[in-house]
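User:
Can I borrow your eye for a moment on a structure tokenisation matter? Would you put together a sequence-and-structure record for a protein of your own picking? Please set it down just below, with no commentary around it:
AI:
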Amino acid sequence: MTTSTVTDSAGLSVYNPTAKVGTGKSQMGQEDFLRLLTAQMQTQDPFEPVDNAEMVSQMATITNSSGIAEMNANLASIKEQLTGTRLGDAASWIGKSMLVQSNIAAPDASGLYAGQITLPAAVDGASVDLVDASGNVVKSIDLGSQPAGDVSFYWDGKDDTGATISTAALQVKVNGATPSKVATWATIAAVQSPADGSSSKLITALGTYSPSDALSLS
């Protein structure tokens, strides 16, 4: 028969050569610490009692250990929830187009260039030129007379015969008016979702933007 220990009336473990070995816990919890501390107080030598400072230190250790374990568990749960939500929200942006303030237009997957200018006052005639890196006007879009407000423009990237003549980013120049704002549509190709929980970044052909930079989403 295997020897082991038993617990006496004071709650202390004493040697017992006849007891059987059972399967115990591999870790001590807060209740175990409190039980040992109580047993220590009950069996202390009245002529040499436990020092008050030592007793307070032991109690503080128990409290801190329990508090830290609970805090870690709560933080892990919060992190898991935030990570799942952040990634799920970020993934929903991929493949969509966002309107951002920019004077550069980039084609989407179908080759379409699109944007919007904001006119502070009505104009009798205005146009938008799409200019390449060499300064050549690739396409001129006649807007005609327009009232004050937002005016959209677009180009399919093709000439009159239907042949594609541009697949590069082009500069937007407005003629016949001074817009208060120029914006273009950009396709969201990917999303950066930082592990530290900060705001996601949207990656487009025009650059990297925050979701708050989007004037509109489609």
Summary: Confidence is low (pLDDT under 50) at residues 81-87. The CA atoms of residues 79 and 85 lie 10 Å apart.
